[in-house]
Amino acid sequence: MLHCPARTIPSRHCHNPSTPQSGHPSARQTAPMPMTPQQATRRRSLNKKIIMFFVVPVFTLLAIVIAIVATSGNSPEEDTEKPSTSQADRDKAREAAGLPPGPDEATATAYIQALNAIDPRIVKPGKDDRAVSRGLTQCGSIKASPDDRDKLVQSTLGRFTIDTRLPDINTPDTGAKILDVVHKYLCPDF
Predict the structure, then answer these.
(1) Phi first, then psi: what are they for 17, rounded to 5°?
(2) Closest CA to 179 of 148, 138, 144
(3) How far is CA 9 from CA 6, 15, 116, 120, in A?
(4) Rounded to an integer, what distance in angstroms lies between the CA atom of residue 160 and that of residue 22?
(5) What is the CA radius of gyration of the chain?
(6) Which of 17, 107, 170, 175 has the most CB atoms around it within 10 Å of its CB?
């Protein structure tokens, strides 16, 4: 029986679905050859090797990963037992690295307000500590290269991610303003 769509198509386009269309490479269907006993034994052996050397290790590794993830969650008791770094310890670490100590609360607030006066997008909402940290790190650059203002301006733009987050204000003028604020509030002695 020929299979033809409902539309009127010349009969040479109609075909019998039980026989392959000639000319199509995938249409040549042949009956599978029966396996010899040796081929069947080899295939079973190959299947066992695949299971033994691939499937079992993959599932074992997956079970190990799941166990690690399941046991690595921190409980609230563990979080309270961890000692936190005190402000004095952080200041000592900064001093050892050649950086100034962290600012007091009033200085930090004035610093953030000065940055917001340049552009309120510089300090992300709720990320005042990050802006202070970036400023203190920039103080290290000021100390290392006090006479290379162009380099300091460029590093300031990068450190405060102005070059990637705020391309519309990514100018030497903006970088110089931020650098001056950092210098004034966080490391005036450098």
Answers:
(1) -65, -20
(2) 138
(3) 8, 11, 74, 70
(4) 68
(5) 35
(6) 175
- DSSP secondary structure, 77-134, as one string: HHHHHSPPPPHHHHHHHHHHTTPPPPPPHHHHHHHHHHHHHH-TTSSPTT-HHHHHHH
What's the token pair of residue 2? 């020929």
DSSP state of 135: H
User: What sign does the dihedral 180-134-158-96 (CA atoms) show?
Assistant: positive
Q: Count CB-CB contacts under 10 A for residue 20.
A: 13
What pTM, to 2 d.p., does this model score?
A: 0.53
CA–centroid distance for 11 within its chain:
59
Q: Is 50 helix (H, G, I), strand (E, B) or coil?
A: helix
User: What's the one-letter identity of residue 94?
Assistant: R
Per cent of the chain over pLDDT 70 is 75
Beta bridge partners of 15: 3
pLDDT in tens, 146-168: 899 999 999 999 999 999 999 99
